[in-house]
Amino acid sequence: MKESRVGQSDRTFSKFWLRRLSKASLLVNLFILLTYASARFLPGNYRFTIGDSVTDLAATISVLSAVWALGLCVWTPKKQRAYLACATYASLIITIAALIATSGGIYSPFTSLWLMVTIFAAVFGLWLTGGIILLVMAHIAMIHLETPLTLEQIAISTALGIMPSVLSIVLWRYQPQKKLDDRFTELENRLTSAEGKSDVVINTIDDGVMAISNDGIIELINPAAQQMIGWDKGDALGLSWQSVLKLVLKDGSDIPEGKHPVAQALSSNQPTHSDNLFLKTFSDKRLPITIVSSPIGPQKEGVIIVFRDISKERAEEREQAEFISTASHEMRTPVASIEGYLGLALNPATAQIDDKARDFITKAHASAQHLGRLFQDLLDISKAEDGRLKDEPKLFNVTDFVADIFEGLAHKAAEKNLLYSFRPHALAKDSADQHLQPIYYAFVDPDHFREITANLIENAIKYTKEGEVVVDVTGDSSKVVVSVMDSGLGIPAEDVPHLFQKFYRVDNSATREIGGTGLGLYLSRRLAESMSGDLRVESEYGKGSTFFLEIPRISKEEAAHKEASLQQAPVQYHQPQTPVASVVTPAEPPVVPQQPIEQPPQLTEPAQVTKPPVQPNQPPQPQPTPTSPEHATLADIEHHLETSRRAISIPRRTNNS
Q1: By the 8 A CB rule, do 10 and 80 touch?
Q2: CA separation for the pair 528, 547 (Å, rounded)
Q3: What is the mean pLDDT of residues 574-598?
């Protein structure tokens, strides 16, 4: 670090040290004047005999020096403090030099003052120290010219006059305080540079930035915020933030009291975030924004507001959703055709194939089903995001409904030899009084509820290699909780916050072997929220997970009232909305075989559908008898597959982890 010299910068001498130096100079001059006055104005018994050595010239110089020091004590300038400090010290040196020179030279009784003062000469720089040394040498030379001095007298004079200055150089030339001052100066320069860079960043970013004081006054607003809001900097500064930053809901209504993110941050001193608000500009235009309010310090000193216009992002999301919806809808039709034809190929009544070909076609059929489920997921997500997802609530007994779904997936758990249990049934078997088990009623969309519950149970089975899967139904007076617990892989803590995001999957060696799209849990949460419920998870990596589905509960009295009002159309508990047989017309027999050979589990359930009899009064048709499977149309096959899939307990989504 380059050494700085005293006197080169105003920062070398602070206001504090300049005043201390001035007080020291004033104190020395007052001592000189006091001794001078005592020798001349006090009675003999109170006189200081040393005052006789103070001449009128020395007293006059001391008065001038004292006046200078007193002035700096009363008023200390903000600039040129280093030069003022040097001038103060120089006046003190001149005063003492004149006092010694007029009171006996090297034999003066005031020689000790010279030793005390010149020891600090190097603090003010080498130039001032050198000047003092030259002054001493000139004084000794003048005395020697007037009266020759002995060698001893010259040595004493030199020691008393020059040695304090030399010692001052040794003590103060490389003092640590100077280096510390240099560090402070460098730090100040860095902070000033950082402050300038911060101003550049704030003024050039596209996000709006506002600084609000604790009492709600705008103290800073950057150009991006001015452009979005429509206010000039000079007009906005000093105003209340409510009059400048106007936020509204999607429908243009005001934000409810206690829900405003800025007000929450100011009152609670906690950061807030929102993506669902709109900014009302000066011209009454509404912009969708994302806003973050961050408190300043722990003592409620104010908040920093950062907001961004997300109109472009929202437009891109809408275009993306429209594309996904259109593409999924268009691709679902050919996939359904492929699935139907593969089903016909597997039907021994319509095709005769060998075992090897059957194995290949079975795998292709399963892949076609998986692709169809993926397209259906994408369609449902698109509907959920733009509000087109239908919600048809019905009354049902949650325990019985979950039991039906549980039994429909029992064969999957049996294939992996898992301990598969439904806790309400286990408690009922252990209880002597069956009426002790509570009855939980809910009035929500049964299809949505079935889809969420089935997805959770199937995920638990899929991600549990060995151990148990336990399904339980509990609740309180306001909600029903369906929990699905497994002893499977578990979820790492860093992945839990992202688990319900679209297309998100836990990426590790264990999950890569298990298929999935990352859409099931995202859609499940959206469906739960559409039912005024919630979906959450508790998990420990390597030990298992527990998912909790919470939906509103209705009381027994409310359930009885709803059931009484629907007596003309009885509610079907834990049953499909439409019986399977009723969706098949008399001319449409089921195309799924009665006894499939080596079929996947999903193909065995539709085989239980009973074939409706042909109406006896149906007129004969010119074409071959349509009751034979080989003459069923492709539309008939697609319609039957879709209705059969909805009828059984196994959901469409089987690997949406």
Answers
A1: yes
A2: 13
A3: 38
Q: What CA–CA distance (Å, rounded) separates 413 from 436? A: 29
Q: Is 345:592 a contact under the CB 8 Å cutoff?
A: no
- Token couple for 397: 């007994």
pLDDT reported for residue 594: 38
Closest-CA residue to 603 (of 619, 618, 615, 592): 592
Q: What pLDDT score was predicted for residue 555?
A: 86
Three-state SS across 32-86?
Answer: HHHHHHHHHHCCHHHCCHHHHHCCHHHHHHHHHHHHHHHHHHHCCCCCCHHHHHH
Contact (Cβ atoms closer than 8 angstroms) between residue 247 and residue 263: no
Pairing between β-strand 272-280 and β-strand 419-422 as defined by DSSP bridges: unpaired
Summarised one tens digit per residue, pLDDT across range 154-178 is: 777 777 777 777 777 776 665 555 5
SS3 at position 394: strand
Structure-token pair, residue 113: 């003052």
Residue 295 one-letter amino acid: P
Beta strands in 297-456 (DSSP E): 302-309, 394-397, 419-422, 441-444
Residue 309's SS3 state is strand
Beta bridge partners of 289: 277, 309
Cβ-contact 286, 279 below 8 angstroms:
yes
Cα gap 644→596, rounded to integer Å: 15
Minimal CA–CA distance to 339: which of 577, 129, 638, 126? Answer: 638
In angstroms, what CA-CA distances link 366 with 107, 340, 516, 600? 118, 12, 14, 8
Q: How many helices (H) and strands (E) does the chain have?
A: 22, 13
Return all residues near 458 (Cβ < 8 A) that are at least 6 apart: 409, 412, 651, 653, 654, 655
> Residue 110: which of 51, 167, 45, 168 has the closest Cα?
51
Cα–Cα separations (whole angstroms), residue 64 to 39, 50, 95 = 20, 21, 9
- 562's enclosing H/E stretch is helix 556-565
Query: What tens digit of pLDDT does each residue of 382-420 get?
Result: 777 766 777 788 899 999 999 999 999 999 999 999 999
Mean pLDDT of 313-341: 81
Query: Closest Cα partner for 83 from 133, 28, 15, 9?
Result: 9
DSSP string covering 192-249: HHHHHHHHHHHHHSSSEEEEEETTSBEEEE-HHHHHHHT--HHHHTTSBHHHH-EEE-
Closest C-alpha among 511, 517, 413, 506 to residue 467: 413
Cα gap 251→277, rounded to integer Å: 10
Residues with Cβ within 8 Å of 24's Cβ and at least 6 positions away in sequence, in order, are 92
How many angstroms separate the CA atoms of 118 and 124, rounded?
11
Confidence label for 641 from pLDDT (cuts 50, 70 and 90): low
Q: Tens of pLDDT along 96-114?
A: 888 888 887 767 788 777 7
Is residue 169 within 8 Å of 184, Cβ to Cβ? Answer: no
If you average pLDDT over residues 510-539, what whole number do you get?
80
Contact present, 351 and 344 (Cβ < 8 Å): yes
Residues contacting residue 439 through CB under 8 Å, at least 6 positions apart:
397, 399, 556
Q: Which of helix, strand or coil describes residue 471?
A: strand
Per-residue tokens: 315:
């437009």
Beta-carbon contacts of residue 441 (< 8 Å; ≥ 6 apart): 395, 396, 397, 398, 553, 554, 555, 556, 558, 559
